[in-house]
Design brief:
Layout: E1 2-8, H1 12-26, E2 31-37, E3 62-66, H2 75-87, E4 93-98, H3 104-107, E5 113-117, E6 129-130, H4 131-139, H5 152-165, H6 174-181, H7 185-192, H8 214-233, E7 256-261, E8 264-269, H9 278-291, E9 299-300, H10 302-313, H11 321-330, E10 334-337, E11 340-343
Parallel strand pairs: 1-2, 1-3, 3-4, 4-5
Antiparallel strand pairs: 6-7, 7-8, 9-11, 10-11
Length: about 350
């Protein structure tokens, strides 16, 4: 097994992005996936200068940093801290994807680090995008970018996620990740529709003196139970678990497929999976494309992309070149440049 770690930002869209990446990577049988989103260790750009506190990196073969920004005033020191850190683990492979501008040139010095900048939050992931990424964009106030596909339900869920992820509250980190993993969208929707008097969040923080609503207390109790159940059963994080409670179909944004038609975003409900698992093919190809992007704008051949995807997937995964060719024709994460390809 290849041990994979996802490290995400402890805000609303950061939790969603981390969960979307987890679901996609967990489809690959050779990957054992863990996630770290922590209100202390990954709450802002200072995480780059404190990476030694993320001890989970020690056991990982691949590490994906998602939605962790660099500060305009201190990016040079942060980039140096990151490159020094990853160079200390030459046998590990590190990937970084973010919707904030990145110090690309400064990060090139680390040979085992691959970086991609995608300004649209809805595209800030690896592998297939779902309705979760629409909600993530709304959490980050990127309303115009998803205006053509969002609904009032997505708006309410975004508000619920912002309330759930508010620092100082009971849910950020492991508990909110557990709720997302278990598809507790209805409960988060209820939090979004909760009385605003219980959710005064100056600068996105929840005051310790603020009384908690019944809905928030109930959601916290559910999250504690989910975390305890995960720990007790020691279930593989490669399983995408469904909640045990009855869930309204319309709220299940994790199973809305975000795709493109003639360059326009389209959101399909209950999209049928490919018999050869399109999600696995697309996810591995996207990681491979990022892995081959050794510098901004770097190009690579079809054969290089296939070899890299097969290496990443491991010996037990036999990718068919015909399937790869079909996926590349419609893929949004890659573009043709002459006879070669380039990651977007």
């Amino acid at each position: 097994m290849t041990k994979v770690l996802i490290v995400g930002h402890a805000d609303a869209d950061g939790h969603l992005i981390a969960e979307q990446v987890r679901r996609n990577l967990a489809r690959i049988d050779s990957f054992k996936v863990d996630v770290v989103v922590d209100p202390e260790r990954t709450k802002d750009h200072k995480a780059w200068t404190n990476l030694e506190t993320i001890g989970e990196i020690e056991a990982a073969d691949y590490v994906f940093f998602v939605d962790l920004m660099f500060a305009p005033a201190s990016y040079a020191a942060e980039a140096k801290a990151l490159t020094n850190f990853v160079q200390g683990y030459p046998k590990k492979r590190f990937f970084l994807i973010d919707h904030h501008p990145l110090p690309l040139r400064r990060l090139e010095v680390a040979d085992n680090l691959r970086v991609i900048y995608r300004p649209d939050v809805s595209e800030c992931t690896i592998g297939p995008r779902t309705g979760m990424m629409v909600v993530a964009a709304l959490c980050e106030r990127q309303i115009e970018e998803v205006a053509d596909v969002k609904t009032s339900l997505h708006d309410a869920l975004a508000l619920g996620l912002r309330r759930a992820a508010a620092l100082g509250g009971p849910l950020p980190g492991e508990k909110l990740l557990a709720l997302l993993k278990a598809d507790r969208w209805d409960a988060l929707l209820q939090l979004g529709n909760d009385d605003p008097q219980y959710h005064q969040l100056p600068r996105g923080r929840r005051s310790g003196n603020e009384p908690q609503s019944k809905i928030l207390r109930r959601l916290n109790k559910t999250a504690i139970e989910l975390v305890a159940q995960d720990h007790k059963n020691a279930k593989s994080s490669n399983e995408t678990e469904r909640g045990t409670t009855i869930m309204a179909y319309d709220a299940d944004v994790g199973h809305e497929q975000l795709s493109y038609n003639a360059g326009r975003r389209v959101l399909h409900k209950n999209a049928a999976p490919s018999p050869k698992d399109l999600g696995v093919i697309a996810t591995l190809l996207e990681i491979a494309a990022i892995s081959l992007t050794t510098a901004p704008g770097a190009t690579f051949t079809f054969d290089q992309l296939v070899r890299e995807a097969r290496e990443l997937g491991g010996q037990g995964l036999d990718l068919d070149e015909r399937d790869i060719s079909i996926v590349l024709k419609k893929a949004s994460f890659i573009e043709k440049v002459g006879k070669e390809y380039r990651a977007r």
